[in-house]
Predict the 3D structure of the following.
Amino acid sequence: MRLTGVVAASSAGAALVSLTALVPLPARAGSDYEYCPPARMSSVSNLHWHSRRLAPGVSLASSTMRGDRGKVNVRVLRVDLTRRGVSVAPLHGALASGHVLSRLASARRLVAATNGMYFNLTYGSPKVPFIKHRRPMVLSYRPERVAGIGVNGRAQDGYVWLVGSAGSGDAQTRLEAVNEPYVPRGISVYTGSWGRHRIPLPADARSRVIRHDRIHSPAGKHRVVPRGGRLLVARGAPAVHWLRSLRGRSLLAVRMRVATDAPVRFSQAYGVGTQTVEHADQISTGLYCSRHEYYAARTGIAWTRSRSTLMLVTAESPRGPDHYGLDENQMSALLVNLRAASAYALDGGFSTTMVARLRHHHHRLALVTAPRGHRQRAIPVGVGIYYRR
């Protein structure tokens, strides 16, 4: 089906982004970031959308934006969170073991997926919060912004932080982080979700192996999470002293939960970057961008006023993911025209990827967005859309 306008409900006169009017500003000396050039608008609709249904309540719309720097391919997944049988869930293996999206999205009932969160290139693990089934997968005591789905089944955003403790008997202390790629000062824990890859243990840190809730090793430089167990890590002299004071073979209780300022608890949540749409119908024009990525490939997560329609959006240019595509102000303009009430950036650049189960290839997932042609970048977490009859 061929649709004219930003979405099927858009009028022919809907305002759209014009790429030709944007000229990069010179970067300030000594700074990698500056204000992006403002997104200029045209009063004439010039986007033609091709929309197809992937499943009841799930659709994929595709269009091409053209400007003086070439074309930009835009893909929009719309998900009706109220539709029976439709669900959204994170896709991942071991957090420190990345896989390409098409491999993460290999489940039978999955109909589409995009890449997810920012990650540490050295260890391949998320460096922003990640929540699954209400539990902290990657989280620290510092409040950080996320976007996701609440326990009420609606899209939402908010700050999240870790509330936790570790202790044996009277020796109790605060838990600073879980599965963080940078070990903070204090006590943190690495779970089986990290995988079998070595943890980033600094020189001033020590760890102890935990199996069946008991301490199974003296304080040392243990770097691999035991199968079915955990690693308790201390960094800094006071924390290391506390860790060494625990008796071997003693019971150790680790408690942790997600705290948030969101209206309801998060069922799942993904750490995000720039908020590209803060108020419905208002385009952001003063967003920061890297001077090296004026027109970069983008991945975004957004939702409508009702919070019942989730949108996952990718934008990329065949000319390359780092210097061609959309800046964040242009992404804001595009999302406002898609009727987004709130939107955030997910990991972009080479990570921007989308797969979908198209009707004429229903037996496999088609790669519909990949900035480097058909070469996908390994990522730790994707966002998957399922349909079960």
